[in-house]
Specification:
By secondary structure, the chain is mainly beta. The protein has two domains: 32 residues; 223 residues, Porin, CATH 2.40.160.20. The chain is built from one helix and 14 strands, in the order H-E-E-E-E-E-E-E-E-E-E-E-E-E-E. The strands form two sheets. An eight-stranded antiparallel β-barrel has the order 2-5-6-7-8-10-11-13.
Length: 275
């Protein structure tokens, strides 16, 4: 074999090794990443929820308390827990902000209150007691804003606030003077008042469209009042509804959010790998 032939053979072997090496080097490179799926913009959603209320009243007021001489409540007036259910429509502005409007019915919560009175203070002698009964329920309308605080393993904590109005209804109100054998009652009455709320909770993404919502809410419902309290004889000396001042509630709920938007895929140019 001539020297020229040997040179050509050497060049061919070197070229083959270079091509083979390039192929193996390309095999060692990582595969190109998948285009990321991100949510761009916002979208509408529906929500529904059920829960329980834990309610309280700051003070009871009545026009006849001033004429009774002295009135002292034994323990704090309050209400039993009651169920609630609501729903609404909302809009996700971006990955951090949501807004919605809700309509909610809050079931009847039983009133518990007991006072004692002294008709001739300060003689130090209590003349009797009044045991109050009845129920309270509400229709609650709220406009809410929520701040989503980031997502970890499908869970998104949030905080928020809402403002609106509450239609507070006092039903089946009774006033029983046990020692004196007296009974008074009032017709049902409803009152609209300003309401506001503070929210905290987290959402768990079941699918791209469905989110479970576990939430807590502190709710201020304003005031409520009974109808005019009259005796069992159907008479009274003065118009004297019972006023329920500063109704509040600690609420917990479990709900669902159905999202009408889809995450959008942004197509990125495929990366170019050079050997």
């Amino acid at each position: 074999m001539t020297s020229a032939s040997n040179a050509k053979l050497a060049i061919a072997v070197i070229a083959g090794l270079a091509v083979t090496g390039s192929a193996h080097a390309a095999d060692l490179l990582p595969p190109p990443p998948e285009p990321p799926a991100i949510h761009v913009g916002g979208g509408w959603y529906l929500r529904g929820y059920i829960g329980m209320t834990n309610q309280d009243v700051d003070e009871l007021e009545n026009a006849l308390f001033a004429t009774a001489g002295a009135v002292e409540f034994i323990g704090d007036p309050g209400f039993d827990s009651a169920p609630m259910a609501g729903g609404g429509i909302g809009y996700k502005v971006n990955d951090w902000l949501r807004v919605d409007g809700t309509v909610e019915y809050r079931g009847k919560a039983t009133l518990h209150a007991l006072d004692r009175f002294d008709n001739a203070p300060p003689d130090g002698v209590w003349d009797g007691t009044n045991e109050y009964g009845g129920t309270k329920s509400e229709w609650l309308l709220l406009a809410n804003a929520y701040f989503d605080l980031g997502t970890w393993h499908g869970m998104t904590p949030y905080v928020g606030a809402g403002v609106g109005a509450s239609r507070n209804t006092i039903s089946n109100f009774t006033d029983v003077n046990v020692p004196g054998g007296g009974v008074a009652y009032a017709e049902d009455d409803s009152k609209w008042d300003f309401a506001w709320a503070l929210h905290a909770g987290f959402g768990f993404e079941v699918t791209e469209q469905l989110t479970l919502d576990f939430g807590y809410r502190y709710t201020h419902l304003g005031d409520a009042q009974s109808g005019d309290i009259i005796t069992y004889t159907g008479t009274n000396a003065v118009v004297n509804p019972m006023i329920f001042k500063d109704l509040t509630s600690h609420d917990v709920h479990l709900g669902l959010r159905w999202n009408f938007y889809q995450p959008k895929v942004i197509d990125l140019p495929a990366p170019v790998y050079k050997p």
